[in-house]
Amino acid sequence: MKSPSHPRDRGIPEATVARLPLYLRALHLMAERGIATVSSEDLASAAGVNSAKLRKDLSHLGSYGTRGVGYDVEYLVYQISRELGLTQDWAVAIVGIGNLGRALANYGGFVSRGFRVAAMFDADPEVVGDTIAGLNVEHIDALEAAIKRRGVSIVVLATPAAAAQEVCDRVVAAGVTSILNFAPVVLTVPDTVDVRKVDLSIELQILAFHEQRKAGGPLMAVDTQ
Amino acid sequence: MKSPSHPRDRGIPEATVARLPLYLRALHLMAERGIATVSSEDLASAAGVNSAKLRKDLSHLGSYGTRGVGYDVEYLVYQISRELGLTQDWAVAIVGIGNLGRALANYGGFVSRGFRVAAMFDADPEVVGDTIAGLNVEHIDALEAAIKRRGVSIVVLATPAAAAQEVCDRVVAAGVTSILNFAPVVLTVPDTVDVRKVDLSIELQILAFHEQRKAGGPLMAVDTQ
DNA sequence: CTGACTTTGTGCATCGGTTCACAAAGGGAT
DNA sequence: ATCCCTTTGTGAACCGATGCACAAAGTCAG
Questions:
Q1: CATH class for domain B90-202?
Q2: Best CATH choice for the domain B14-83 from the list 3.30.420.140, 1.10.10.10, 2.40.50.140, 1.20.1050.10
Q3: Which residues of chain A does B93 touch, with a Cβ-Cβ cutoff of 8 Å?
């Protein structure tokens, strides 16, 4: 907060934030195996990045390593967790209990490490009342009330594309400011609200692009016009 | 179109490639609504990006717009599809038919627009033989044979983390060079193989980071979307 | 045909992120 | 304590992506 040079500067680069969960996963794995300290070289290769990048990333959080030794695994787990806000308990709601919603409710990363599925909603009376991952599916009518009652602060949208914007508007109106969107639509939200999207078909299309390029070889005779 | 001054440069920036599917989706939507031409401004806002970026992205594919008018929707759909390799038919295999695998098999983006789920595999005898999205689930033992027989070139991994690397090795040995990985592990592959990963819990953790900052920070950084 | 108007395509400045490479810092041995 | 070895943390160069702002290219009306 004072000098702009080294302290725990609050301005952590977005690219770094996106990699912290990666480091965290590798560290958890190492902790389970009883590894006490790890060098930037080893941690980087476990996380699939290069070691200079890892060191620069970690340097944004503070100076938690020991020169000549490496990083203490437990300590680093704690520091990264704290930075990401995983030392608190986040109540997550999933809206849209189709195949995807069900998958998410059972997904390991959702039920541990700071997150807890606190509510699930669907519009289909056939699905409402089902128990999934030990939790009851509620009707979408109960959305606002349940969000407030359970202190939900992050909502996962797994609805059909056509329903996503409407549900989004409702959860925003209910005070939610973080949304993870799986529906293939561009959501419109006030800029106080954070939306991250995951679009599976986009990833597939990027793969197809590269695959096509490989198949065509170094000489690409493409233009048919 | 083959002018040496502005050739269809084969070096399309990665960031551009990642956005093309976004433009494509917006264009498909417009085509359905009978919109014949669209300006960069309108298309950009439908895709959720800024218009200068959109124009620069499209300029990497060629000069497909008309000044003073905009872009022909159908024509642009075709050009982007061709660039992404979606004018051909990609046979995709899904390995791991748990909740997530099932969701993917039924996912709209997987069964249209150039992609076709050609095979599904699981290790659980309970699941093998089930029909999902009109297709039979085969035993993992049949992996290599079925991949070759059906001409599968892209494999989607939706297995538990512990099984992912082994399955990955097998599909790579069978000649697959594009993998979409949903398992939370860092896969090791020869560098001729393309891996893209989707980790749902990472996205959630990034949201938590920003949410925490909103809630707690004495200084609120403006965050852009 | 001319002139007003619209919208593309791009040169350029800028910004954020990556990588290199090394001085600084610490541990351990003697 | 001193020296050697290892590994961090970071300055600086580099690289790709972004966004501005405008000339060029086209449409359309009269």
A1: alpha beta
A2: 1.10.10.10
A3: none
Rounded distance between C-alpha atoms, residue A125 and residue A120, angstroms: 13
**What are the pLDDT digits (tens) for B125-180?**
999 999 999 999 999 999 999 999 999 999 999 999 999 999 999 999 999 999 99
> From the annotation, which residues of A make up the binding site for NAD(+)?
96-101
What nucleotide is nearest B11 when CA is compared to C1'? D16
Q: Tell whether the model's pLDDT for residue A43 goes beyond 60.
A: yes
A5: nearest nucleotide, CA–C1' criterion: D10
User: Quick one: average pLDDT of A140-160?
Assistant: 97
Least Cα separation, residue B47 to chain A (angstroms): 7
A101: three-class secondary structure by DSSP: helix
Token reading at A63: 């100076």
Rounded distance between C-alpha atoms, residue A134 and residue A140, angstroms: 19
Cα(B147)–Cα(B52) distance, rounded to whole angstroms? Answer: 43
The pLDDT of residue A140 is above 90: yes
Contact (CB<8Å) A201/B110:
yes
Going from N- to C-terminal start, the domains of chain B cover 14-83, 90-202
Rg (C-alpha) for chain B, rounded Å, is: 21
Q: What is the mean pLDDT of residues A71-77?
A: 98
A58, A64 in Cβ contact below 8 A?
Answer: yes
Residues in reach of strand C, judged by a CB distance below 7 angstroms, are A 13-16, 49-50, 52-53, 55-56, 66-69; B 6, 39-41, 51-52, 55-56, 58-59, 63-71
Highest CATH level, class, for A14-82:
mainly alpha
Would you say the pTM of this structure is higher than 0.90?
yes
Q: Which residue is nearest to nucleotide C16 (CA to C1')?
A: A13
Q: Which residues of B make up each annotated binding site?
A: 96-101
Residue contact A153–B83, C-beta within 8 A = no
- Of the candidates B186, B196, B221, the beta carbon closest to that of A47 is on B186
Q: Taking CB atoms and an 8 Å limit, are B194 and A201 in contact across chains?
A: no
Decide if B84 contacts B77 (C-beta within 8 A).
Answer: no
Q: How far apart are CA B168 and CA B147, in angstroms?
A: 13
Distance CA B16, CA A93 (A): 33
Q: What burial class does residue A106 get, using C-beta atoms within 10 Å of its C-beta: 0-12 exposed, 13-18 middle, 19+ buried?
A: middle
| Distance in angstroms (rounded) separating the CA atoms of residues A186 and B86 | 22
Percent of chain A with pLDDT over 90: 86
